[in-house]
Amino acid sequence: MSIKQNLNSIKSSIPEQVTLVAVSKTKPVSDLMEAYQAGQRIFGENKIQEMVEKQEQMPKDIQWHMIGHVQRNKVKYMASFVSLIHGVENFKTLKEINKQAKKHNRIIDCLLQIKIASEDSKFGMTANEASEILTSSDFSELKNIHVVGVMGMATFTDNQEQIKKEFILLKTTFNQLKPLHSKLEIISMGMSGDYLLAIACGSNMIRVGSSIFGERNYN
Ligand SMILES: *Cc1c(COP(=O)(O)O)cnc(C)c1O
């Protein structure tokens, strides 16, 4: 199937209030343009440099989401245009995003990445760490960021029960944090293999790559 057909079939399988982020990492601009022509306006990348290069070449009405691990020293390269940063793992990174956003006179939306997977390799904070950040006075001084939700990545496994437990953990964490910070609206969870399960568990933003653009080749 073509990129356009893939997009249409995913969009017809998800509720309207769920935002689809087209994860275009490693894919050429020509593939992204095909998705753009089909109406897609939200793209997710996991490397800042790659996102910057694509942003420069593509139409300016695209919303660029940074979905990968955020290296603090590279925040400055995306601060002028990034629309949502999913993977914020600590207060220091929030502070740096705030500083760079301020230079551009912008407010940058961010999600706190919560560690829901059992794998040590996955990044993220605990629910307690997130609530400490959201209630701290240092956080209330950051005027150029808005924390608008949470993001999580499930364990890389075929075990649907385990994935489901982890998705429910993220939804529960969101429910715990929401009374502390009314701006929280987004629950970013679900990828190509599990987005329907994620939506059933409360996701309202899915990050789908290979089901739209085909398998990635990292060579
Ligand atoms: C690559 C990636 C995705 C998309 O994965 P697919 O399985 O190709 O849909 C989603 N989220 C993050 C954080 C990713 O790095």
Automatic annotation (TrEMBL):
Its cofactor is pyridoxal 5'-phosphate. Keywords: Pyridoxal phosphate. GO terms for molecular function: pyridoxal phosphate binding. The keyword Protein biosynthesis does not apply. The modification N6-(pyridoxal phosphate)lysine is found at K25. InterPro entries: Ala_racemase_N, PLP-binding_barrel, PyrdxlP_homeostasis. Coiled coil: none annotated. The keyword Lipid metabolism does not apply. Pfam families: Ala_racemase_N (PF01168). Residues 2-216 form the Alanine racemase N-terminal domain. Belongs to the pyridoxal phosphate-binding protein YggS/PROSC family. Pyridoxal 5'-phosphate (PLP)-binding protein, which is involved in PLP homeostasis. NCBIfam families: YggS family pyridoxal phosphate-dependent enzyme. This is Pyridoxal phosphate homeostasis protein.
